[in-house]
Design brief:
Layout: E1 5-9, H1 19-29, E2 33-36, H2 46-55, E3 60-63, E4 66-67, H3 73-86, E5 91-96, H4 101-107, H5 114-132, E6 137-140, E7 145-149, E8 163-167, H6 170-179, E9 182-185, E10 189-190, E11 196-197, H7 204-218, E12 226-229, E13 237-238, H8 242-257, H9 263-268, E14 274-275, H10 277-291, E15 293-298, H11 301-311
Parallel strand pairs: 1-2, 1-15, 2-3, 3-5, 4-5, 5-8, 8-9, 9-12, 12-15, 13-14
Antiparallel strand pairs: 6-7, 10-11
Helix pairs in contact: 1-2, 2-3, 3-5, 5-6, 6-7, 10-11
């Protein structure tokens, strides 16, 4: 089995000026990497990640995840390669097709159907990898055109830094199975002006289905893929009364989506981390044994420090 790898991140209410002590604490606890999300209403990710790399020695840095719609892939490749060099080859590239329609509306970017956004991301991945390769690169696609571009600088990691692609739908996970080194098992989102959680997609049964899609599309390379999960539907909670907290989450999800999950659905979900420290250690061990998930985003370093310290690298 793959060793456990935990990813720390900055919380919504954290001050970006607190990033340095947070990153140092994550490294001291044994976290594998530090990731920053990519949303217009929060600090941009790449500059802070350069700072994280500068004040740590082993901690990998990454995005969770970049919105492909916000940047031209050749420009992004230049920035990513620069960050890989600044970090001494510690960059992981998390990138997705974009999902938050209000952000698109706010800056006047068309929110294309998901199939179009996935096609755009497919082309963008080819361009980023082409820019990382040696020599001049050309590309003629439906959405992007590159002519004799010799991308610079070259990243330290060859042929390229690891790619992290996360999603919950079959089309996206099929792309991830072909292109990514790490795949994030995300919940599906329902369309509309305000994206809503597809509640059944956080269950263990839905996770089995997603992994089946990945396995089918990846073929022989499935064994090389690392699987990631992260908390959804509520934060991680350390408690001696997990069923009470799980019922609160059931009620909240019903109010938000109209879908009735069970307490067992929540407690078994790869996206819900509720219980005592002992319970959570057992849960992560079970998720690795049952699904092969070995990478986890940690949303609260203080609460989950004992879990990370017990399992990191094991």
């Amino acid at each position: 089995m793959r060793p456990f790898r935990f990813l720390a991140t900055i919380a919504d209410d954290d001050d970006i000026l607190d990033l340095i002590p947070l990153a140092r604490r994550a490294e001291a606890m044994g976290c594998h990497g530090f990731v920053i999300p990519d949303h217009l209403m929060s600090p941009a990710p790449l500059l802070p990640l350069a700072q994280v790399a500068a004040v740590t020695e082993r901690l990998r840095v990454g995005t969770f995840v970049l919105n492909n719609s916000l940047r031209h892939p050749a420009v992004l490749a230049q920035e990513l390669a620069t960050l890989d060099r600044l970090s001494g080859g510690r960059l992981d590239i998390g990138i997705g097709a974009g999902w938050n329609k209000p952000e698109y509306d706010a800056i006047g970017i068309p929110f294309e159907p998901v199939g179009v956004r996935i096609k755009q991301l497919t082309e963008a991945l080819a361009i980023i990898k082409g820019c990382f390769a040696e020599g001049a690169f050309s590309f003629a696609g439906e959405y992007y055109t590159i002519t004799d571009l010799d991308g610079a600088p070259a990243p330290v990691q060859r042929p390229h830094p690891p790619f992290f692609l996360g999603g919950g739908g079959k089309r996206f996970l099929t792309l991830a199975a072909r292109e990514a080194q790490v795949i994030g098992l995300a919940p599906r989102l329902l369309g509309g002006d305000v994206p809503r959680l597809d509640a059944p997609s956080i269950t263990a049964a839905a996770t089995e289905e997603k992994i089946g899609w990945i396995r089918e599309a990846a073929g022989e390379r499935f064994a090389e893929i690392e699987l990631n999960a992260y908390p959804t539907g509520g934060p991680s909670v350390v408690t001696t009364e997990p069923r009470i907290e799980a019922q609160r989450r059931v009620d909240r999800i019903r109010e938000q989506t109209g879908v009735e999950l069970t307490v067992e659905d929540i407690l078994e979900s790869p996206h819900s981390y509720i219980g005592t420290v002992k319970d959570l250690i057992a849960k992560f061990l079970e998720l690795r044994e049952r699904f092969g998930i070995s990478s986890f985003l940690i949303d609260d370093l203080d609460r989950l420090a004992p879990v990370v310290e017990a399992l990191a690298g094991q």
